[in-house]
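Newbie here. two chains, one complex. Structure please?
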Amino acid sequence: MRSHGYELGGREILRILLAPVLGAAALSALLHAAEALHSLPDPRPIDNPDETLLRCKFEMTRTRHPARVVLVGDSSCAAAVDAPELARRLPGQPPVLNLGLIIGLGMDIYADALDEFVKANPGQVRLVVLLVTPQLLTHEDRSVAHQQFWRRLSWNSENPSALRVGPLDLWLGRSLMQTRVVPRLLHVPLKGRAAEFYGFTTEFQRYLLARDGSMVDPGSYHPARRGATVVPTLSPELEEQSRRFRQSVPRNARLAVGLTPLPESLAGREYPRHRDSLLQQWNRWLEADLVLTNLPAALPDGLFATPGHLNQRGQARWTGLLGAALSSQGETLPAE
Amino acid sequence: MLFHSNDFLFFLGGVLLVYYLVRRWLAARNVLILLASYVFYGWWDYRFVVLLLFSSVLDFAVGLGLGRTESPRLRRALLILSVAGNLGLLGSFKYLDFFGESLAGLLSVVGVAVAWEPFGWLLPVGISFYTFQSLSYTIDVYRRQIVPTTNPVQFLGYVAFFPQLVAGPIERAAHLLPQFQRTLRIDAAAVERGVWLILWGLFKKVALADNLAPLVEMVYGVSAPAGPIVVLGTVAFALQIYCDFSAYSDIARGVASLLGFDLMLNFDRPYLATSLRDFWRRWHISLSTWLRDYLYAPLGGNRRGRQRTYFNLGLTMLLAGIWHGAAAQFILWGIWHGLGLMVNRWWTERRAHRRPWPGWLAWSVTMAFILYGWLLFRAESLEQVRELTGALAVWSWPPWGGSFGWNLLVLFLPLALMEAWQHYRRSDLVPLSLPWWGKAALQGALCIGIAAFWEREAAPFIYFQF
């Protein structure tokens, strides 16, 4: 018995299949035409939280901002210091900007970020505070993905019209949809505790802008087991990057360097002394004007969201301590 | 392999090509479908194929036996063998650990300590669907409603038919099996229908359901959300599960249509229902009719008085809940709908001679009931059911509520517009009535939408877990 019969010819099949193909091609052509006529919204790719943070800080480094005190470092810096609150606690209440990024980027990118900010805001910065987690000194946490993302931001900002496209992008306008249309239609939800606190990347970005680059990590730290302590060491590979970073600090600005605190359960009894020794060793390369050994090396576990990030209460405490530490060093405060 | 994956695109392309080549031979076509279906199923996990084969061979043999004997005792024994075999398979993989742990828990309450070591068996994907499909064959043969088939290739192909194997529709033998036995026609309408259903299904899954999922997770995956967000999150889940599940059914029907097969409609705009009975005539139609014909009716249906009718409704819906999974929330959902159907029936009888409620009121009450049912269904534990129910009384609005509501609206609109159009024109294929340029624009837009979200890690269909 015959299995099945096709009661349509090649022309009909073509007509049926060409409908979606030509329809998609026509709409894609419209999208490309709109892009060429600058009628599409600016690109805003669908970001995850890390990329939202990096994109926001990237734009901050290239924007006018009245900051006279600039915090630079990794995400522990972004979480540890509330910039507007620090500004209130310093004599003269100088504007503060928190350019804390992500640990995996490395100090050369921190230096680039500072360079760009100084270029966009010449003659303004009076104090740079380099704050990182002790883990950064081991030079083990390199994130190639984050570094590539940051470099792509730089590349795109210098070549705004040059989007890398493949054949599917041309036929289906995929990259235009993803970067120009979808982000305007849909907010990107966050996950877990970040979702509870911020909701969406849109709100996360708004928070960063409203708090001059500071963020809150809404997690809560639960130490896995007692007794395991962290003993960071200073990697020799950090020397070149540290010296490069020193050169990015403007001549008429001071440099202060510190390490964000560890949870007490991870610190161990000898850690404060070890921390001071690390800072002094590191400062041989950084040649900072102020080494913040007058800040506590560790804080109670309840002030932490993760082993590397303070929570909101911890941020309030640390901001106060940092403000007091900087205020006590009268000659390093920026003159208004 | 998932429908919305590159693997499946290549698989389907290959099958369609070979399908064209074997168009002159019915036997070859059925062998092709059987092989393709087993490859499709084995792609998930080759071990699952053994279970599918077991269920199919068992029921094929039972069917043959039922066809050869007139002895009532023997026929009943064969039927029991089929039921026991299929439900035993389903029960072992799906419910054994749950009932074991529940029993151990109950015994511990009365002071009897029993240690239950879970087997931890992986749940074979689609087992709830193909066992029911295979079982419907033996029951229909037993009832002499259909003649048993003597062709094993046809029967195995019927059970394993890849477009609907892992998430339905649960096809009746009387509808699907004859299509393996006759010459099929593939005309322009079938191809057009297939292309439309596949595109609309992919759009619902990739662009709508997978973007609704994170919204749902924001509510059900965190602690202590406020009332309005619980409501919106539950609406998001109602849309997600509908888009996800109906998408699978649409794609299944579309692929089948390209092969000349006709699969049953599984969803008929369920969120337009104005009563719970109406909802169950529109939602997962293949399961609800299966339960009606093989459980509710044999229990007596509504023919043995009011009390027995309520009991039958309650038991049927309880088992519907259990079918979905071994968790207290599914059982609670089943009980909720059982109670709702009882109340619906009682209310309908009570108001038989009065003016019916206005449509908007009936719809609102029905939707409120269904939404709370979805809250029970989606909650991750009974504690969360309590927490979310209590949160409904907390009326505060989080700062990100606006973004949440916006996303929900954007994702709801395309679905609402399409379903309103289909409802107005009383056909789910109404988009095919557009002129060619209209079809091109609509289908082109769907392609653009699908492509915009295609590259993300493919999320499995929700009903694969049942």
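Moderator note: The first helix of chain B runs from residue 6 to 21. The CA atoms of residues 104 and 114 of chain B lie 5 Å apart. Thread marked as resolved.
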